[in-house]
Specification:
Layout lengths: L2 H6 L6 H33 L18 E3 L5 E5 L23 E3 L6 E3 L12 E3 L4 E4 L13 E3 L4 E4 L3 H4 L6 E3 L4 E2 L12 E4 L6 E3 L11 E4 L4 E5 L9 E3 L4 E3 L18 E2 L3 H17 L24 H12 L7 E4 L4 E6 L5 E6 L8 H14 L10 E7 L2 E7 L4 E2 H5 L2 H6 L2 H21 L4 E2 L8 E3 L5 E3 L6 E2 L21 H4 L4 H17 L4 H6 L10 H4 L9 H17 L10 H10 L13 H6 L6
Parallel strand pairs: 2-3, 3-5, 4-6, 5-7, 6-8, 7-9, 8-10, 9-11, 11-13, 12-14, 13-15, 14-16
Antiparallel strand pairs: 1-2, 17-21, 18-19, 19-20, 20-22, 21-22, 23-25, 24-27, 25-26
Helix pairs in contact: 9-11, 9-14, 9-15, 11-14
């Protein structure tokens, strides 16, 4: 019976019968509606050009980065394999994905503004747009995402104030908008019981209020590197964590990470030569079996011990040194935050200054973070090189984890390149030396270590600089030892924009993956920003019209003739490292040989050299 006929005869049919007939009609229509919605989702995916349907199954649920529910609707969308064009975030028709719960488009090189239609994704619980080139203001429609728990928009170029409705989404637990150009007033969090917000490295201004959160004991806020003024109140000391470093504040910072632990359950294990490590391991095992506290260790020179002297080794003493030097990890010693954990600067009794990377309390329960810490200790305890960060010691307790490194005064290469004053001081000679330092570290890892070690995340953020602008490679949490008897297939890790393209479809890690990352960082160092646009253009003939002088960092004068030779050689090597085929890329041994012995003739003036000329010029690297 047609629905129109049912309605026309409704007065003579009992209401219950009408309801049953309507339900039956809806059930018959549902498969057609679902099929139409699935088709609309597929159409939207293909129209975005982020996925090429000719290279995949006809079913989008089998495409890389796509997950679906049991009726075939898209519920998760992760970084796809891109075409060569630089994508717009607006290329994706968000209104087609009303069932979407997880949207992760980190590091895709997305440009443009965040479209208002993103607010239509009412079922979204996590949104990650980290490390793109997004501009403009945050759309107020983000406040429509009432199920959102995790929002990460860090490392973009977003501007304007943060709309307060976004800050107070009812289920929001983690908000990261660091490393943007956001301004406006200092945020206040009203409705959250548990909240973690990173607003660092922006242009937020105004007078610091007495309170930042309605429930300060459950609130963690990072406002470092902004333009905040005023006095620090006692109320802020009630917060679980707050970072106010590098603002324009007055008064002593008393706020800190509130987590404390028992000293009697903690041991510090110091990195050392293998032979000494064996002796110490035997000592620790003996101590655990006997359940006695070592009381006969000679305490030379200082009662507080010396973290760097094996003869004064004592876990409790070393831990006390750290606690005293940081005042129990007081926030005033915090110099930065990373993907996880915070970094502190501390001066030990010996006068030695170190950096401490410490997990946050909530991160102890995350197996991936704990695994990364253990992996970093394993790698750095076995390798020694002047261009690899030195691990002095570590604490791997199940309730407190931190690593102790040499302190690098100038911070990361990414930080230096993104600060105008720092970048102008970072002249061509220093940039050339930094790149050579990175190359030396990778050569050592690939060719002097047996078996070879692959870093897997070579980025400008993971290159640190000391006071002399000398480089060390850091962050070995995802490093991997190559096994000659294994396929070396792995999960896709690393930072998008630095990851070798073959990893997206083979998941097989080789030394050439690091070579690709080295090529990206080399170009980034020379041109002063991530070279995403330049890399995208390499497959096009348009590089003939791109002059080298137009891509060099404009904050520096053009290099002198001697520096120009080195800069041109580095760009030529970087372009070779970025070839799509890993077999066409040079090894790090070949790279370092060219840096040592090859003299590139400057046959034509720098002003006349094009990128295409350098792509075609034969250096006989391979």
């Amino acid at each position: 019976m047609e629905l129109s006929n049912i309605m026309s005869t409704a007065p003579t049919i009992p209401a219950k019968v009408i309801v049953v007939l309507l339900l039956c009609k809806a059930i018959t229509l549902f498969p057609n509606i679902a099929t139409a919605m699935i088709a609309e989702e597929k159409r939207a995916l293909l129209q975005s050009t982020w996925w090429n349907g000719n290279n995949f199954s006809n079913d989008p649920c089998e495409w890389i980065g796509i997950s679906c529910n049991n009726i075939g609707r898209v519920i998760s969308m992760r970084t796809p394999i891109l075409t060569h064009q630089q994508p717009l975030l607006a290329d994706l028709n968000f209104t087609a994905f009303l069932n979407l719960e997880d949207l992760d488009l980190r590091g895709m090189g997305l440009i443009g503004m965040i479209p208002t239609q993103i607010g239509d994704l009412r079922n979204l619980t996590s949104l990650h747009l980290i490390g793109n080139f997004l501009q403009g203001e945050l759309p107020s429609t983000l406040a429509n995402l009432t199920h959102l728990k995790f929002l990460d928009l860090s490392r973009n170029y977003l501007a304007g104030a943060i709309p307060s409705p976004i800050l107070n989404l009812p289920k929001l637990e983690v908000l990261n908008v660091s490393q943007n150009k956001l301004s406006g007033n200092i945020p206040y969090i009203e409705n959250h019981i548990n909240f973690e917000g990173d607003f660092s490295h922006n242009m937020i201004s105004g007078v610091l209020p007495r309170s930042l959160c309605f429930t300060p004991q459950m609130c963690r806020i990072d406002l470092s590197y902004n333009n905040i003024s005023g006095n620090i109140s006692r109320e802020l000391g009630k917060m679980q964590y707050i970072n106010l470093q590098n603002n324009f504040l007055s008064g002593k910072e008393k706020t800190r990470d509130s987590f404390k632990m028992s000293e009697s359950t903690l041991h510090i294990f110091i990195s050392m030569d293998i032979s000494l490590a064996i002796l110490i391991a035997g000592y620790i095992i003996f101590k655990l079996f006997k359940r006695k506290r070592e009381s006969k260790i000679e305490r030379r020179e200082s009662k507080n011990g010396n973290l760097f002297s094996i003869w004064n080794f004592d876990g409790k003493i070393a831990y006390e040194d750290i606690i005293k030097a940081t005042e129990d990890f007081d926030i005033k010693y915090c110099i930065g935050t990373g993907a996880y954990g915070s970094v502190y600067k501390a001066q030990l009794p010996s006068g030695k200054i170190v950096a401490l990377k410490k997990l946050h309390r909530g991160e102890y329960e995350n197996p991936s973070f704990v695994k990364s810490f253990h992996n970093e200790v394993k790698m750095l305890a076995e390798i020694r090189h002047r261009n690899i960060v030195k691990l002095h010691g570590f604490c791997l307790h199940n309730r407190c984890m931190f690593l102790i490194y040499e302190f690098m005064e100038r911070g990361s290469l990414f930080y230096v390149l993104n600060k105008a004053d720092e970048a102008r001081e970072f002249d061509w000679r220093k940039r050339v030396n930094v790149i050579k330092g990175i190359a030396n570290a990778l050569f050592y890892m690939h060719h002097d270590c047996a078996p070879p070690i692959i870093h897997r995340d070579i980025t400008s953020s993971n290159v640190l600089l000391n006071s002399r602008m000398e480089a060390v490679v850091s962050d070995f949490g995802t490093a991997k030892i190559l096994n000659p008897d294994s396929s070396n297939q792995t999960l896709l890790v690393g930072t998008y924009g630095y990851v070798a393209p073959e990893l997206a479809y083979t998941l097989v890690v080789t030394e050439k993956c690091d070579v690709y990352g080295f090529g990206v960082v080399t170009l980034e160092t020379i041109i002063g920003k991530h070279p995403g646009d330049l890399i995208s253009s390499l497959s096009n003939t348009c590089t003939e019209s791109i002059l080298l002088k137009d891509v060099l960092d404009p904050r520096l004068p053009l290099p002198s003739r001697q520096d120009a030779r080195d800069v041109i050689l580095l760009i030529k090597i970087a372009l070779a490292c970025l070839k799509p085929s890993p077999n066409s890329r040079p090894s790090m041994q070949q790279v370092t040989q060219k840096l040592l012995f090859f003299k590139l003739p400057l046959a034509i003036p720098l002003n006349n050299i094009s990128i295409q000329h350098l792509v075609n010029q034969d250096l006989q690297i391979i």
